Amino acid sequence: MSHTHEVTNQVPPLTGHDVAADTTLQAAVEREGAGWASGELHELGTLAGSAQAQDWGRLVNENPPALRTHDRYGHRIDEVEFHPHWHTLMDVAVRHGLHAAPWQDERQGAHVARAAKTYLWMQVEPGHLCPISMTYAAVPALRHTPELAEVYEPLLASQEYDYGLRVPATKRGVLAGMSMTEKQGGSDVRSNSTSATANADGSYTITGHKWFTSAPMSDVFLTLAQTANGLSCFLLPRVLPDGSRNRMHLQRLKDKLGNRSNASAEIEYDGALGWLVGAEGRGVPTIIDMVNMTRLDCAIGAAAGMRAGVVQAVHHATHRAAFGDSLIDTPLMRNVLADLTVESEAAALAAIRLAGAADRAAAGDEQEAAFRRLGLAASKYWICKRGPAHAAEALECLGGNGYVEESGMPRLYREAPLVSIWEGSGNVAALDTLRAMAKQPESVDAFFAEVNKAAGADARLDEAIRALGKELSNHDDIQFRARRLVETMAMVLQGSLLVRHGEPAVADAFCASRFGGDWGVAFGTLPSGVDTGSIIERAQVAA
Questions:
Q1: The whole model's pTM is what?
Q2: 23-281 topology per CATH
Q3: What's the whole-number average pLDDT of the chain?
Q4: What local confidence, expressed as pLDDT, does residue 290 receive?
């Protein structure tokens, strides 16, 4: 071989490490009551960091699902074919309880443990976690109709992945999807035109077109349709109790920017049968219980993407030389890497804290439920909004190598905008925060009770909390100012968690930049004097 083909100064693959060797995550999980899950986190983290699992993620994205509407004879089949490793990834997720298992796990911290495992496994391949998240979120909505929950909840919570087109009651485990939006309304679901007519046996006949259906090969779906009493929520199985296929026809799969391993479809309900969940006319309040849980997963997903990105960036800089120096030793790169790490840790702390609130709310803690309502709305907006910028900067740390598909960074970058759009894009999330404050003023008290636990620990944070309170008391043009307000709320929550529980260097850098007025627009604009060394160490892994 010619000496011109000698390979030097290239970065070794980031494989063979434990993704759960993350001190911020482990401490947060312990603090929120799920320390008992540490062994399983390391087991899953080791698999997530393996070359094998990383290859599974690559293959399911390079070979996206394909729609088969009819068989060779012209019979309607409405099936989606996946790469075999899609099912491998799904099986791991279900066996580890990343879906609905926490709803039937009575251990304290079950939702925190599930959130942490989701955070780890999302760093392998986030697309397949869409049906996993839907299944997790379906349970609280189904509980509005106890007789349906009694039948389906044990199947949803089963830790057996049983893929196939069969009557749900005959399966060892089932997965759930969700159909809410329609082409004329999008997030304005009250404008939906799909209709539901009551039948004598208690079922409903549903007719309409859904513009975006998550996970169309799931076993059951929660959907919205109009009855004589208004917009209502329904459960639709893909296979009816008599073994026949429900009249739910897949029109096409969406050609998406990212999330390409996962199928998202337009569905036609041509006289499909469904069963009412909750009361007629109460569709939005019923399905919002599902939406709130998927919004938690949006925050977890954004935090997971940030962690994956910054770990890759730090790994690259550790092994790459440029301009005569190790890249990680150059001051400007250290500023960038430290800033990316600060953002990642702030997101992770908030996501796990909100998962802890979900645990306590499920146990009947009204204060935690009120905090979760507002904290989740604000965090969903901000953490998810930061994800794409974070992914772009992490990619840029690898230079041209990061722009090449083989690095994995383009896939991370394409995936990043999804969670900001899913379950309400930026404006919807910001307006939902305002709505929560107006309709549930106790949530405001609970939010400030949480952030004020850090009172006196950092003068910059204290001033930010005082300024936020003043801004919230001014209702002039509040909708126009909504994004700025919600952004501040989310950062104040992150700052309070970092000051109380984070690495001191990270907390200082966060407060100095986000609240100290000495911060630029791009990542890598931390003020002088921050301890970049202590910060960057937190994103270095042994591989």
A1: 0.95
A2: Butyryl-CoA Dehydrogenase, subunit A; domain 2 (2.40.110)
A3: 94
A4: 85
